[in-house]
Amino acid sequence: MDEGHEPDAPETILPVNVGNTRTSFCVASGDEREHLHAMPNEPVDALAGAILSHARGLPAGAPAVLATVNRPLSDRLLGALRQALGPDRALLLNDDVPIPVRHTLDESGALSVGQDRLLNALAAFEVIKQACVVIDAGTAVTVDFVDGEGVFHGGAIAPGARMMLRSLHEHASALPSIDLGRPDSIQSLEAGPFGRNTHQAMLNGAVFAVRGLARTLAERYAEFYEAYPQIIATGGDARLIFEGDDLIEAIVPDLTLRGIALAWGAYARAGGDA
Fold first, then answer.
1. What's the whole-model pTM score?
2. 88 and 144, same structural domain?
3. How many distinct structural domains can be found in the chain?
4. Where in the sequence is the domain holding 148, given as residue range(s)?
5. Does residue 154 sit in the same domain as residue 246?
6. pLDDT digits over 189-217, tens only?
7. Within a domain: residue 191?
8. What is the pLDDT, as a whole number, of residue 273?
9. Which residues are catalytic?
10. Dihedral angle of Cα 241, 242, 246, 252, to the nearest 10 degrees
11. Which of residues 243 and 35 earns the better pLDDT score?
């Protein structure tokens, strides 16, 4: 290093993860993530305003980088951000910034895979540096496998617990509309394993459907891989569903945001080349 030359400051960005019903964002600088927020997607003006309030505190030129599984919403949000920040400071993954993840998906899968699944794979492998199963529990539940070289192999997509409860109410007239919560069978040993009323039976069904899905698929992936991979959970419902479940090594709520920051870092180090 030349005398008097200061090392480069950590690259700071505002990663934004646009989901089906909620959007999360934070300030990311190097390995640090601060001011984590999650908001409903609508009204989009309120969401854009909250993101912009964070962006105003960033260093000059630092971008907001969006990942999306909800393109109609993200297009509206991106338009508002670009109007306020300029087109060079509001970027969209895949369109503007590539996601550096190798995969074994077929042609159709490569075209349609959700950005969140690839970003979760990227971040999970960066954290543990070995094969892993990544469970994302939100509107949908995904259970995906990443091998020991960081290659994404795909996995499974299922209804999330809230979607299950809503579907039960909408398609079975005797079943009530209820909010997702931890069933008594998890909260209290004295309650026992049984749902002793309709509300508790529905919670048991939704929560343990997701837990059972994760466990069965993890076992299948381990059989294929001939070793038992570490299992990481993320997503808005991950803590509610999986906290205390001995299957899960770690619950990382901001895993997708970490993936966005990693994708941006690889892009920036390459000089902004796709």
1. 0.91
2. no
3. 2
4. 128-254
5. yes
6. 778 899 999 999 999 999 999 999 999 99
7. yes
8. 59
9. 116
10. 180
11. 243
